[in-house]
Specification:
mainly alpha, 63% helix, 0% strand, globular
């Protein structure tokens, strides 16, 4: 993918519009999320680790809200890898 501004905008739209559907497994959702992050990385778009983790939480279906609360409880920072492992 070319590193054009339009490609960066397209991929950012893909990321920020991602929502987990009720019929989707967590593994499928994580794969989609990771693919978008990899595409952004290839376009040299950098996101902080904590920002990625918070985005992942916000894109999960409502049925995962309690788990997100439990994972974030008492933490000062979040890292995407830790969140992935817990999910």
């Amino acid at each position: 993918m070319m590193k054009s501004l339009s490609n960066k905008l397209f991929m950012k739209k893909q990321l920020y519009s991602l929502r987990m559907k009720q019929c989707t497994s967590i593994l499928q959702h994580l794969n989609t999320f990771n693919k978008i992050l990899n595409d952004l990385l290839a376009l040299e778009v950098k996101l902080e680790k904590e920002h990625k983790a918070l985005l992942l939480f916000s894109f999960l279906s409502l049925s995962y809200d309690h788990l997100a609360t439990i994972i974030m409880y008492g933490k000062k920072t979040l890292e995407l890898e830790n969140v992935r492992q817990m999910l």
